From TrEMBL:
Name the record gives this protein: Purple acid phosphatase
Originating species: Liquidambar formosana (Formosan gum)
Molecular-function annotations in GO: acid phosphatase activity; metal ion binding
Family: Belongs to the metallophosphoesterase superfamily. Purple acid phosphatase family.
Catalytic activity: a phosphate monoester + H2O = an alcohol + phosphate
Signal peptide start-end: none
EC number: 3.1.3.2
Keywords from the named record: Glycoprotein, Hydrolase, Iron, Membrane, Metal-binding, Signal, Transmembrane, Transmembrane helix, Zinc
Length: 256
């Protein structure tokens, strides 16, 4: 795997750390050969502190409809690329745990059943968080999927990766320290508009920065999930946790 370049802030809780996030594209290549694809974008996010988008911003809009699934995101669901974990949140009631999915050009729909969890943090109570793994998918194939089957259905799609082997090209985006500022939105937009289309994101930690808010206001996790849905619902983001994912706040909760 040859990465074309990498820049990430130190993940301190300082505002400078929050402001710097650079998306860089890497190409996965034949293991034996490293190839330099060049710099794919001249965009460099500015270093100065930028401001979080207010909760009423367009990017945080709640999808319309009773109990509509929100914060839809997918990640790789097995080790070879034939599985996908679909996750989403419903707010009014648990609703259906099922995902309906089908191959492009096929109307044979399959259904997989997931599970639902909730959590509390200080005085925050989460919505109903659903996770459903779908497996036995075909490589390199476009699938459509639907969630919210009992109430408001929402439909998305993804493309599975090719089978692993020599000379199999695949393009990862690499994003870290994203946050939810106006500049976070620019970073995500640059990733989406890059002509070298990333097929999956390797996320190197520090997602929502909700911990910068009083009581680590977890409402800012929900807003972040809605913000990134425009990418995370359509391609796997593969996560690692950063220090901002540790909800260490001994004054309000005893266990991080
Ligand atoms: C949680 O507490 C803070 C102040 O301590 C308050 O501003 C906020 O509205 C509360 N949130 C909920 C969901 O009760
Ligand atoms: C975020 O970026 C998108 C796409 O460029 C744009 O449509 C939207 O208005 C932006 N929202 C904010 C709050 O900056």
């Amino acid at each position: 795997m040859g990465f074309l370049g990498l820049s990430s802030s130190s993940s301190s809780s300082s505002s400078a750390g929050m402001a710097v996030a650079v998306a860089v594209l890497g190409l996965v290549l034949n293991a034996a050969v490293l190839c330099n694809g060049g710099i794919t974008s001249a965009f460099v996010r500015k270093v100065e502190k930028s401001f979080d988008m207010p909760l009423e911003s367009d990017v945080f809009r709640v999808p319309p409809g009773y109990n509509a699934p929100q914060q839809v995101h997918i990640t790789q669901g097995d080790h070879v690329g034939k599985g996908v974990i679909v996750s989403w949140v419903t707010m009014d009631e648990p609703g259906s745990n099922a995902v309906l999915y089908w191959r492009e050009n096929s109307n044979r729909k399959k259904q997989a059943e997931g599970k639902v969890v909730t959590y509390t943090f200080h005085n925050y109570t989460s919505g109903y968080i659903h996770h459903c793994t779908i497996g036995n998918l075909k490589f390199n194939t476009k699938y459509y999927y639907e969630v919210g089957l009992e109430h408001t259905m929402r439909k998305f799609w993804f493309v599975t990766p090719p089978e692993v082997g020599p000379d199999v090209p695949y393009t990862f985006g690499l994003i870290g320290d994203l946050g939810q500022s106006y500049d976070s939105n620019k970073t995500l937009t640059h990733y989406e508009l890059n002509p070298v289309k990333g097929k999956a994101v390797l996320f190197v930690g520090d997602l929502s920065y909700a911990d910068n808010y009083p009581n680590h206001d977890n409402v800012r996790w929900d807003s972040w999930g809605r913000f990134v849905e425009r990418s995370t619902a359509y391609q796997p983001w593969i996560w690692t946790a950063g220090n901002h994912e540790i909800d260490f706040a001994p004054d309000i909760v005893s266990i991080p």
